[in-house]
């Protein structure tokens, strides 16, 4: 039970960190409004998919996780 509790604390900390990055990332770094993000609007329908933002976050998380695996 002790290891499961530590795992939950670790997952919770990571989620809080990711949430903070998502909230502050758009204001500080311009995440969500990059040139590769797809935005389509027609009438009262709009579709938004942050493709470039997803790729950049994936690369950053891959680098961070590779440091933890060592």
UniProtKB/TrEMBL annotation:
Q: Does the keyword Membrane apply?
A: yes
Q: Which InterPro entries match?
A: DUF2905
Keyword check for Transmembrane? yes
Q: What Pfam families is this protein classified in?
A: DUF2905 (PF11146)
Q: Which UniProt keywords apply?
A: Membrane, Transmembrane, Transmembrane helix
Protein's name according to its UniProt entry: DUF2905 domain-containing protein
| Transmembrane regions | 7-25, 45-68
